[in-house]
Design goal:
About 40% of the residues lie in helices and about 20% in strands. The chain contains 14 helices and 13 strands. The strands form 2 sheets. Strands 3-2-1-4-5-6-7 form a 7-stranded parallel beta sheet, with helices on both faces. The chain has a 6-stranded parallel beta sheet with strand order 10-9-8-11-12-13, with helices on both faces. Strand 6, helix 8 and strand 7 form a beta-alpha-beta unit. Helix 6 packs antiparallel against helix 7.
């Protein structure tokens, strides 16, 4: 069956949460025998992708329309900047179903030309909640104003989901929230897609704590600052590695190493070899792909706070921390303990069972 997929950004390389979910979903759809017509937006450091063109039967690229005039609209900036007339024309070339990835891509969801089409929306977050939490983390300045304004716009814009035939939630908490607000719609829990290939590493782990993520996202920058300014000074003998995409900061501590834009292979090695994979967030929204990635690829301990575990049932597979004041002592204890093979095998088996149960 042919299906149109509208992605908010070019999903390759799959090096951050949203791109990972979209890219591995495309691979799954292709594996199921579907013909994929991908529509995606080029901006930032993303370019046309031969890998996507090989995976999909056709790929249409659109330029995201950024600028002040888009900010002045009553429609959320993330949606208004993707209102491409060419997209609508290309979607109307046939009658195939359409999968919209995120509210970002839903400007045309209620358009009369798409009235008779099967339309599915994949929700990557409850977006207005996500932007409200971002606003709380940024005190004052234009970014705070932007996040608060965008949250208000997104809450109003979410009504377009009335035009969807099916809504795909990424976490149980999001599914319950969407069912309450859209009781007339079919809301299905569809866990995120990701590379869960387990790569054994010879020689055990190395004595460092890893935090990884897209390091230009406000949420992750806040965690990186917490590690550098509050956690690392309390543990001067422990090495911390902050690894991820486009960091706007460098190391401020002798025991902190910042790894910018690691390759897939480098990131896999960092994940696998870390004695402790530290999964912290101050925003209990959506589901954190980095948690699933660490659980599936790590040979070390996985430590997560309660916000990271909210809305999922992965807590039993981690060392959960509810009080950040106890975190330094917990990390010191784990750094002296190499995980044994039995624990790692149990974690892998449990993760596979959970995935099978919700797939």
């Amino acid at each position: 069956m042919k299906i149109h997929v509208v992605s908010f950004q070019v999903p390759f390389p799959a090096d951050y949460g949203g791109a990972i979910d979209v890219f591995y979903k495309l691979k799954w759809l292709r594996g199921q025998g579907h013909e994929i017509c991908l529509h995606t937006y080029i901006y930032g450091d993303r370019k046309c992708s031969p890998e996507l063109e090989e995976l999909c039967s056709s790929v249409f690229y659109y330029k995201r329309q950024t600028g002040l005039c888009r900010l002045l609209s009553t429609e959320p900036y993330i949606a208004n900047s993707r209102r491409s007339p060419e997209l609508l024309d290309n979607l109307c070339r046939d009658s195939a179903p359409i999968l919209f990835e995120g509210l970002h891509t839903c400007h045309f969801l209620l358009h009369p030309r798409l009235r008779e089409r099967l339309k599915i929306v994949r929700m990557h977050n409850i977006e207005h909640e996500y932007y409200s939490l971002l606003a709380r983390q940024v005190r004052g300045g234009w970014r705070n104003i932007y996040y608060r304004t965008e949250a208000w716009k997104l809450r109003r814009f979410e009504k377009v989901l009335a035009g969807a035939d099916r809504i795909l939630a990424i976490s149980q908490a999001d599914a319950e929230s969407l069912r309450r607000r859209f009781p007339q719609k079919e809301v299905v829990l569809l866990p995120c897609f990701y590379d869960d290939a387990y790569v054994p590493v010879q020689g055990g782990t190395q004595p460092y704590v890893l935090y990884q993520g897209n390091l230009k996202v406000e949420e992750n920058v806040c965690v990186a600052n917490f590690i550098q300014d509050q956690l690392a000074p309390q543990m001067p003998d422990c090495q911390f590695v902050l690894a991820g995409r486009s960091p706007s900061f460098g190391s401020r501590r002798p025991n902190v190493c910042v790894v910018a834009n690691p390759s897939d292979e480098e990131m896999s090695q960092l994940l696998a070899q870390a004695r402790v994979n530290l999964l912290l967030t101050f925003q209990p929204t959506g589901i954190k792909l980095k948690l699933l990635s660490a659980l599936s690829k790590s040979r070390g301990h996985v430590v997560a706070n309660r916000e990271m575990l909210q809305g999922n049932d992965l807590g039993e597979l981690c060392t959960a921390v509810s009080d950040l004041e106890t975190l330094p002592q917990l990390l010191k204890n784990l750094m002296d303990m190499e995980p044994n093979t039995h624990e790692l095998d149990w974690r892998q088996d449990a993760l596979k069972r959970k995935k099978a149960r919700i797939s």
